[in-house]
């Protein structure tokens, strides 16, 4: 069709049936986060560009190539948030939340924007579920957030997850690792992609983020950071792993898991699913102990993770996500009014009802109810109105019974 306008490349409509699954998964995620003492924080979708340059890091792929940056009418450089942590840190400092008695544990679910190469599982607008905790240095908290993510997966019946963990050290031990890494990367320079060749000088750690197959293979042979950790980082990592074992969580140490963002210190981790294909990371996270200071705030450590909601939802089984509803079928003007009253009553008692105002035969309405997947059909005709008793059909069992308004409600409530 000429002049047809489509969704922008890398963006996606979530249509009503799928949106319902999203709502359910989001509700479970919120409940789990709240169970662990996290509270929602909502920050703006766009921020000063500088926030991400400083926070996400000048050498990250996100800042170098993936930000949606634009000038507003006043000429300010703004960026659609590519990730959430810098916004939360800004907000904590701006509102001095660290002076309040409440724990600094936050969560948020919403869209992020990255000018990434779109493919299955990778979009330019995508939703993340984020959690952040500040001011708790104990490796027990690192393990608790992994346990929380694992609990969320269990609540959603997500199976075949692998948990990868690592430590990326700190500003004391990382420089000696980077020196070694640079030497090794230099030896492989000619076989690396132009991007990675640039990264050798700027930040060789970022070579591990490269999506080019040959670079990934070469990077496999690079030195492992775990062997360069200072005593403090090594001890932190050891305790983190011990706490994971306390929680009976299976994990695998992946020494090249450095994550694509510059600010990580010590713990990093990822949940991957074999069901996802090339983009297999469902969630990723780690510590960022220096970030608050970088933004001119107090010296408060932090740790968190971000779930790719779309990827998570794609591995959540759909069964049971739909929920039941009642379809009201009526014949004639009087039955229509009685039906309107019945659904008003049932809705007020929490029963989801659909009544459609379009002239259709009873047979036609029954077949629609079937097609739409109704759990119940309530049939209202003139005789039923007169007698105050209606035909309730259970679409799963096929059983049809005559019931009063109260009996209908009771029957539905007992069955659900
Ligand atoms: P990151 O913020 O890069 O650590 O990513 C955290 C999680 O967000 C990943 O594990 C993915 O599940 C998801 N994610 C990151 N980038 C994208 C994208 N472009 N499209 C869809 N999901 C993404």
Written description of the protein model:
The protein has 416 residues and is an alpha+beta fold. The chain has 15 helices and 16 strands. A hairpin with a 5-residue loop joins β15 and β16. The radius of gyration is 27 Å and the shape is elongated. Bound molecules: adenosine monophosphate (AMP). Residues 83, 114, 116, 121-123, 126, 128, 259-260, 281-284, 306, 308, 310-311 line the site of adenosine monophosphate (AMP).
Radius of gyration: 27 Å
Can you give the mean pLDDT? 93
Q: List how many beta strands DSSP finds.
A: 16
Determine the strand fraction and express it as a percent band.
15-25%
Question: By helix and strand content, what is the structural category?
Answer: alpha+beta
Bound molecules: adenosine monophosphate
State the share of residues found in helices, binned by percent. 25-40%
- How far apart the termini lie comes to 46 Å
Largest sheet composition: 8 strands, mixed
The strand order across the widest sheet is 1-5-6-11-10-9-7-8
Short description:
The protein has 416 residues and is of the alpha+beta class. It contains 15 helices and 16 strands.
């Amino acid at each position: 069709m000429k002049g047809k306008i489509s969704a922008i490349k890398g963006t996606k409509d979530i249509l009503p049936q799928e949106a319902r699954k999203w709502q359910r998964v989001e509700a479970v995620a919120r409940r789990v986060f709240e169970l662990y003492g996290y509270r929602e924080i909502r920050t703006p979708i766009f921020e000063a560009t500088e926030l991400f340059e400083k926070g996400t890091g000048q050498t990250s792929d996100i800042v170098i190539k993936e930000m949606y940056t634009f000038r507003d009418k006043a000429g300010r450089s703004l960026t659609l948030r590519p990730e959430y942590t810098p916004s939360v840190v800004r907000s904590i400092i701006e509102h001095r939340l660290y002076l309040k008695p409440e724990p600094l544990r936050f969560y948020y679910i919403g869209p992020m924007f990255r000018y990434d190469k779109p493919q299955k599982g990778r979009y330019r607008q995508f939703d993340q579920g984020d959690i952040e905790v500040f001011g708790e240095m104990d490796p027990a908290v690192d393990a608790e957030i992994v346990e929380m993510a694992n609990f969320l997966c269990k609540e959603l019946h997500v199976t075949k997850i692998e948990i990868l963990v690592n430590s990326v050290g700190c500003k004391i031990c990382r420089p000696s690792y980077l020196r070694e890494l640079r030497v090794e990367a230099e030896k492989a320079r000619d076989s690396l992609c132009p991007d990675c060749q640039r990264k050798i000088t700027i930040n060789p750690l970022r070579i591990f983020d490269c999506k080019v197959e040959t670079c990934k293979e070469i990077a496999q042979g690079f030195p492992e950071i775990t062997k360069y950790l200072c005593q403090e980082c090594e001890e932190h990592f050891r305790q983190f792993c011990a706490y994971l074992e306390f929680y009976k969580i299976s994990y695998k140490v992946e020494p090249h898991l450095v994550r694509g963002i510059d600010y990580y210190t010590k713990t990093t981790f990822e949940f991957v699913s074999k069901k996802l294909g090339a983009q297999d990371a469902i969630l990723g996270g780690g510590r960022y102990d220096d970030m608050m200071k970088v933004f001119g705030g107090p010296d408060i450590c932090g740790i968190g993770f971000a779930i790719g909601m779309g990827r998570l939802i794609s591995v959540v089984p759909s069964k049971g996500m739909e929920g039941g509803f009642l379809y009201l079928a009526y014949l004639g003007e009087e039955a229509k009014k009685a039906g309107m009253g019945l659904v008003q009553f049932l809705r007020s008692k929490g029963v989801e009802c659909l009544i459609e105002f379009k002239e259709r035969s009873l047979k036609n309405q029954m077949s629609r109810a079937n097609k739409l997947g109704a759990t119940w059909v309530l049939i209202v005709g003139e005789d039923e109105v007169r007698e105050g008793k209606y035909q309730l059909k259970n679409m799963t069992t096929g059983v049809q019974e005559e019931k009063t308004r109260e009996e209908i409600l009771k029957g539905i409530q007992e069955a659900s």
